# Entry
Amino acid sequence: MDGPSQAHVLVEALPYIRRFAGKTVVIKYGGHAMVDEALKENFALDVILMKYVGIKPVIVHGGGPQISRTMARMGIRPTFIEGQRVTDDETMSVVEMVLVGTVNKEIVGLVNRHGGRAVGLSGRDGDLIQAERMQIYRYSGSERPPEIIDIGRVGKVARVNAGVLRALEESGFIPIIAPVGVGPEGQAYNINADLVAGAVAGELSAERLILLTDVPGVLRTAGGGEEKVLIPSMTAEDVGKALEDGTATGGMVPKLKACLKALARGAGKAHIIDGRKEHAILLELFTDAGVGTEIVS
# Structure
């Protein structure tokens, strides 16, 4: 890139840097960006740059593939119902060991090694993520009551203790959160990381919620064919329709639900972006075009 082009990038970024200075941005870190070494480095540098220009990043990370690999090495076969990992006591021990003991500390080390000041947390720390058991209902007919399916220690967010995160932000630290919640009796719960990120963004009234994924954003079928195109911007109403009509499927469903929850509780905007792109976070925050789907209330 030549000098004038570099200057143009900086000038384009300046109003966004001013707008976000002093504001909280919650990032869900997952997918290919957690695996590819170059993308991991990019992620750490993006987060540290945000911190240096006055933004307050808060990171929530996933770790499903790492959990599955560890379970396979231990001879434990994973079971999924309605996209949720069935989590008995043995599986919960593995989930907590991998997410809190391994993945979280690797991300903390990555950010700190590049000059950041990161602190690793789980929902147990300071009762940060208070959880309750998730219920799954299976319907077999309009005249029959739904079947309640027990998926074990899979939780949903009941409450976020924002004071813990505020204290870290005020002290200049970057919180890195593993999506393990704590129940009323002190038991651990496995919670979808997208849903944790949405709840955290809402509770902190974050300026932005950014979800990294392995697709360009929210896609729709174009022209009645098989080709899918990116939807650059959606309203909360558009998202509700996409969830109802089947436009959103699979892993996109919890992401969109997380965005709706964040917006309903006070977050400014939500973004679903392709974490496989280099510096995707900076491109989404600091450029006019962005690189994914933005969702507004």
